[in-house]
Amino acid sequence: MGSTSANSEEIRDNLVARIAEAEREGWLGEVEGLQVSLAGAQDKLDQLHTEAARQSTAVHLGMPTFGRSDSR
Length: 72
Known about the structure:
By secondary structure, this protein is mainly α. Helix content is 72%, strand content 0%. The model has no long low-confidence stretch (mean pLDDT 88).
């Protein structure tokens, strides 16, 4: 997954912390907006995990080798 996943995880974690702060402070409008952003960040992470899983199951077949055509 690499740095894109790590960055997305940092963003998600930051949003979770900001939501907790907004809830403590009673900033209800801020909570709603941050929850929308958090849902988007989680969707992105899910996409990255799905893509990584798909790539890890791919089988590399390599280049086929062919014998000399004049040996027939």
